[in-house]
């Protein structure tokens, strides 16, 4: 997509819209550092003050995050996502898991019904990456791979509202996955993920729902027995 020169008029609004479009399209993904100010100024053909105003607007919305001495990073895909992140930080892992259960069980069914060939390929790649990360000493890499798998399943639903909601919960989802992994003696044997990938590929909504129930039930059991 890239940035394009901005027309005179409401310059800041148009710059904000371009930034939001890049974030929504995944060209500036969550966690990524946005280009430095001089590069943005040159690409957009506007002054530094306009770029700074646009960046500040998205910072206030919680979409961008400035890091002193490092630059500005994408924090959320939308102001809705930013609000969900702030709220999820003030709740428990059990509450987040309950929300995940509501979303992911139905998402599994929708993914099996609406997935494309590209979705199936992405889910298969994600479940293989998760499997490969199971026994790695870097648990952060495993957590990231697990979250990426669940986001691939959500993406396969084709529901933009659900995709945005789940993206807003990504930080909370990562927290639940990390907590569960910390208390799970056998991450490689954790059920449901490969079965879910297979069910979605086969277009079997009943099997997909059953697979989601298996990993959600296993996660709930670990959360309930932890110290």
List key phrases describing it:
Four Helix Bundle (Hemerythrin (Met), subunit A), 11 helices, 227 residues
Write the layout of secondary structure elements.
Blueprint: H1 11-24, H2 37-44, H3 48-60, E1 64-67, E2 71-74, H4 79-88, H5 93-114, H6 117-133, H7 139-156, H8 160-168, H9 170-182, H10 193-202, H11 205-225
Antiparallel strand pairs: 1-2
Helix pairs in contact: 1-3, 4-8, 5-7, 5-9, 5-10, 5-11, 6-7, 6-10, 7-9, 10-11
Briefly characterize the structure.
This protein is mainly alpha-helical.
Uncertain spans, ≥5 residues at pLDDT below 50?
A: none
The sequence of SSEs as H and E is HHHEEHHHHHHHH
By secondary-structure content and strand pairing, the structural class works out as mainly alpha
- How much of the sequence is in beta strands? under 5%
CATH class of the largest domain: Mainly Alpha
| Number of helices, counting only DSSP H or I runs of 4 residues or more | 11
Largest sheet: 2 strands, antiparallel
Give the tally of structural domains.
2
The total of beta strands comes to 2
Helix content: 55-70%
Terminal residue distance: 48 Å
- Summed over residues and divided by their number, the pLDDT gives a mean of 88
Tell me the strand order in the biggest sheet. 1-2
What gyration radius follows from the Cα positions, in whole Å? 19 Å
Query: What CATH architecture of the largest domain would you give?
Result: Up-down Bundle
CATH superfamily of the largest domain: GntR ligand-binding domain-like
Q: Which descriptor suits the 3D outline?
A: elongated
CATH topology of the largest domain: Four Helix Bundle (Hemerythrin (Met), subunit A)
